[in-house]
Sequence to fold (487 residues):
Amino acid sequence: MINETPRVRFAPSPTGYLHVGGLRTALYNYLFAKHNNGTFILRIEDTDRNRFVEGALENLLDTMEWVGLVPDEGPRQGGISGPYIQSERLDIYKKYADELIESGKAYYCFCSSERLEELRDTQLKAKVAQVKYDKHCLNLSKQEISDRLKNGESHVIRLNVEPGSKVKIKDIVRGNVEFDRSTIDYQVLIKSDGYPTYHMANVVDDHLMKITHVIRGEEWLPSTPKHVLLYEFLNWEIPEFAHLPLLLNADKSKLSKRQGDVAVEDYREKGYLKSSLLNFVAMLGWSAGDDKEFYTLKELIENFSLERVQKSGAVFNIDKLNWLNAEHIKNQTNEELLPFLKKELEKSEFRDKTFSDEYLLKVAGAMKSRLNFYGDFIERSSYFFEEPKTYSQDIVDKRWKPETPEHLNKLISEFEKLENPVHDQYEISLKKVAEELNIGGGKLIHPVRLAVSGIGVGPGLYEILEILGKEEVIKRIKTAIDKIKLD
Ligand code: GLU
Fold:
């Protein structure tokens, strides 16, 4: 437990979809907050108007809700430090930019894009260590600035970085990181369209929203010294930082769309459970220090700590996700599973048949350890909804012998004696018949499975028989005896 009550934020720029890396950042913020009884805030960073995507915000909020990471404060929840959408906070950023200008920590820059391009080209040609603005506008007279502003000349506001001691960052994941002041660019804080840059808005909001821990992807580490300077210049307390490791493809390149899906929405569409997605992304850069891989959200909250986040990149392994998905389906109670299976039935050829919840709960229980996705359900268990139309030829060839019909007829007579049989009674009867016939149990088990299901795989045979019920079982065995003809 940490001493203060943390306030953390997930601060995505809505691009149209939620990247799995974004989901990981959101989740770690959420887990850290919940583990420490803190507050999880969702803030929308939409100040780059060139990247505006219609509908992106709603989609992002919906996806966050679907996956269950509902913020304590955010655009839909409101809260004490709203609004939570940056484009609705422009006046606030302007006020602090003016303050920085007043104190000489920022300055107006009227350079045209042509001049900046020329400067860049010259510096590139001269092979300078770092391409940087040349502070051309730093020393304009007060009079000139005020005239040019009055004339409505296009301008930006830049950070005034002066020589000095190294900028030090304490990062919970990466340890101490230092940056030479001379390597920090004279960052634009307010753009010519009046919108703040990411750096300006991010720092102002983290301060005003009383963020105690900034937990975000490693790609933001190079921006952090600029942020630290802003905190210094504004005399604000610097939050703690935790930069999360990069997500990598199997070939160790940075996770990219080209090698597979990166949108949470795609995984949702494909039928992954939110619990397995969360479990999967939680393990991308964190572990409790043992071999445990299956976690519910509740267990993640109990166990999570930033100290156990690794530095090195985390490989995105889709096989692991698929395995976890099957594990999470298996872990659901039959009652939890029921609505999803009903949805699959609704989409299937059996949509017009009616099955009681009691029956479907039993099917759910029998099938749940045999599904990778809910979408596998109908295909793998159709025999619970209709009698087999065909019999797997492979299994017929392997398991159906000339003497099988005679054996099965004996078994039918034995089954007929049973009253409301459950699992055990079927087993006892089958063993008894096998003994009388002096054959191994398999000689009956496999043909019966084929007769009732048409295939050779599935839940335990006696479980299937119990679910189907005695009459249906006997009917199906008789039908198979009639239909299966050996050449
Ligand atoms: N808006 C940034 C992003 O899209 C936020 C980075 C941060 O958390 O500071 O990831």
Q: What stands out?
A: The radius of gyration is 32 Å. The pocket of glutamic acid is lined by residues 11-13, 45, 198, 202, 216, 220 (CB under 6 Å). The CA atoms of residues 391 and 454 lie 4 Å apart. The chain has a mean pLDDT of 96.
